[in-house]
Amino acid sequence: MATTNRPDAPDRDALLRMFEIQQKIKTADERFRAMLTSGQVQLIYYSPRGQECISAGYAVHLRPDDYVVTIYRGLHDHIAKGVPMRELWAEFLGRGTGTCKGKGGPMHVTHPKSGLMVTTGIVGAGIPIANGFGLAAKLSGTDQVTVVNFGDGASNIGAFHEGLNMAAVWKLPVIFVCQNNLYGEHTPMAMSTGVEYISERASSYGMPGVTVNGNDPVAMWKVAGEAVARARAGEGPTLIEARTYRFWGHLMGDAMEYMPKEERKAAMAADPLPAFRAWLLDNGHANEAQLTEIEDQIKALVDDAVEFAMNSPEPPMDELYTDVYEEIIK
Amino acid sequence: MTTTEPRIMPMGMAINEAMDVAMGLDEKVFLLGEDIAEPSGGVYKITKGLSTKYGTDRVRKTPISETAIIGAAVGAAIAGYKPVAEIMIMDFIGVCLDQITNHAAKIRYMSGGQTTVPMVIRTSAGAGRGFGAQHSELLEAFAVHSPGMKVAIPSNPADAKGLLISSIFDADPVLFVEPMLMYWDPAYAGEVPAGDYRVPLGKANTVVEGKDVSLISYGRQVHTCKKAAEELAAEGISAEVIDLRSIVPYDEAAVMASVSKTKRAVVVHEAVTRCGFGAELSSRIHEELFGTLAAPVQRVGGKNIPIPYASNLEKAFLPQVADVVAAVKRTNK
Ligand SMILES: Cc1ncc(C[n+]2csc(CCOP(=O)(O)OP(=O)(O)O)c2C)c(N)n1
Ligand SMILES: [Mg+2]
Hints:
The complex is a heterodimer of chains A (330) and B (333).
Chain A: H1 12-37, H2 52-59, E1 67-71, H3 75-81, H4 85-92, E2 116-120, H5 126-140, E3 146-151, H6 158-169, E4 174-180, E5 183-184, E6 187-188, E7 209-213, H7 217-232, E8 238-243, H8 261-269, H9 272-282, H10 288-310
Parallel strand pairs in A: 1-2, 1-3, 3-4, 4-8, 7-8
Antiparallel strand pairs in A: 5-6
Helix pairs in contact in A: 1-2, 1-3, 1-9, 1-10, 2-3, 2-7, 4-10, 5-6
Chain B: E1 8-9, H1 11-25, E2 29-33, H2 50-54, E3 59-61, H3 66-78, E4 82-89, H4 97-104, H5 107-110, E5 120-125, H6 140-144, E6 150-152, H7 157-168, E7 174-179, E8 190-191, E9 205-208, E10 213-217, H8 221-234, E11 239-243, E12 246-248, H9 252-262, E13 265-272, H10 277-289, E14 298-302, H11 311-317, H12 321-330
Parallel strand pairs in B: 2-3, 2-4, 4-5, 5-7, 6-7, 10-11, 10-13, 13-14
Antiparallel strand pairs in B: 1-8, 6-12, 9-11
Helix pairs in contact in B: 1-7, 3-4, 8-12
Bound molecules: thiamine diphosphate (TPP) and magnesium ion (MG).
């Protein structure tokens, strides 16, 4: 389908970049959860643990000037798109040094310099907005693409259906990434969704749809690469359904009584990150020393970000009325 | 003589009991909303146990589809049912606004009274939890501005139960706003009458009697007013606190009687001040009592900004006891 000649498999550089992104997400996530559990910080936190390979798999195909839109469960997408770790942490902790001066918080992280354009807390709402980014690129004649991330649950809201139809009709350079972690809040997908595969919905809007194992970094890389190439070449949108699992339920503190214990245990035992690490070593893409070095650097990066955020002040009170409009209107 | 233990419970439990009572009384009552059935029982556990007791036909868990939820409730209500639809958090009402303002609210009128929409939209709301701009807002003003919709906002567990049962059996659509911070906080627990206990819509409650100034409020901010009244009492100012309980209809007679007596009024709510219900109330008081007022009516509400995430800014968004006290002082100059 794609017009460009694309390699079938990621090269060593892409593999290591994916590894690095995955580990950054995992390390940041583990630190958030540790700090929450120990009571060091208090915040509403939607862990993306388990879903890292999806973000890493599309992000390595993107340029800094490509756009990403995501949701409250967005830490993995923020990191993958390159939002700086210090400002990201500071935003999560509501500090004045955060990406959004502490005004938005984790559900609304925005960093246009990295191309992270919108994070929304309203299920499905990012989809039509992503079309706007796609339209802008098309109108200006650039070959920028937009990746919009959302969950399986979001595919049941009107905005998804309106958005996909418009994107197909207008042939917008948008990649719809449905991160299907099998649950929407406390409801298993089968109880809320009439199709077995969300990708089936693409055909009714006249766009290609594909289901991929979102926990397989190479498969995800391939599918995302094709979709990005199509969008860049002006061939229109793609719906990618990337199947995955949320290790920690909907949000931290979730009793997870609605998730079968065995199912979660099995998903965590099949954690794609250690598996990918072992695969890289077994196939000679990297040696232990190289991977350890990357991991050490990431640990230092996260340590630094935590310290930066914890030592940052709250936003000054005179920020209360700024940014509502261009000028202050009370 | 028999003594019975007082039934002290948090607001979340009182709301659960109201739905339980209503479903027991009338099989036309059913619930629909995201995650409301077992094992979840709602993300805030407000519908806990109800799907087990009444079955999943009557306690229906829905896809994440607010427009379809409210639309289904509107249709079923016209067809003779009494649906109680849950919109998990009030900000999500933006997704289904059309079904509410263009349909639930207008259908009785547009049909010349042939079709009616006796349904309830339960929703939780309120800032103070670090949930940010899209999960914290009180948006009742839109419904006040949509003739056809009624609006109730309880301030304590007993009223929550009594108002909800009344709302479910009301002939018209009611937006029922539940202050989320009060759901399970024992500080807000209170005694709740057993059984089919009803509090009528449109009947205010004088929470504190006073003679110098009327503090008029509803929902969680009634408690801010109570604290302000205590502080003012220490300074020798006697404040009357009126809890409206519902704002469409609202108890205009009680408001005017109180302000006629005190000659001063401060209206307090959590929603942003600009164009909030307080603006309407202030206007009505001026229209009726201009000549008797000793000072212009003052408004205290949320700041006119999206709700900030950082806790210091979020706190500054919310009306504080000191803001109410300062507003009272402005009526006393
Ligand atoms: C319009 C709207 N309705 C309901 C909610 C409450 N809510 C937040 S997340 C969520 C589940 C979404 O599930 P899914 O799309 O699968 O994403 P996931 O959380 O699994 O990543 C719900 C119902 C919301 N934020 N917005
Ligand atoms: Mg999901």
